[in-house]
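Fill in residues.
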């Protein structure tokens, strides 16, 4: 009688289990990469919004008053709400300005800070 060649049922099931675990891990990693890419896109667009707001203030050449001012920004087909927070500094001729941009849920995506002078 010839010895039988091939795999037993147990060996096949173990191999299938290993393949299933590897595929599940790969799918999870791909999902994480997709989420990270989406987050990077949102943060980049929010950075552009904040930078645009601060550039507009600099181009106006007027020292902004102390307080908060809301703004809305469109980037990459999305709307980003934001707030310009203007605070005094020890030097009365200067102001600290924070541009805070949020996502649709109101969570901060980015805060960009600058100091502007009267002159």
């Amino acid at each position: 009688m010839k010895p039988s060649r091939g795999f037993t049922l147990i060996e096949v099931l173990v191999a299938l289990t290993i393949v299933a675990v590897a595929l599940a891990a790969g799918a999870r990693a791909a999902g994480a990469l997709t989420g990270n890419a989406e987050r990077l896109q949102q943060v980049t667009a929010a950075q552009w919004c904040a930078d645009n707001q601060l550039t507009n203030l600099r181009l106006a050449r007027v020292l902004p008053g102390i307080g908060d001012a809301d703004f809305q920004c469109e980037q990459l087909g999305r709307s980003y709400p934001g707030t310009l927070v203007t605070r005094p500094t020890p030097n009365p001729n200067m102001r600290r300005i924070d541009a805070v941009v949020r996502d649709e849920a109101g969570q901060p995506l980015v805060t960009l800070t600058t100091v502007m002078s009267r002159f």
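The mean pLDDT is 91.
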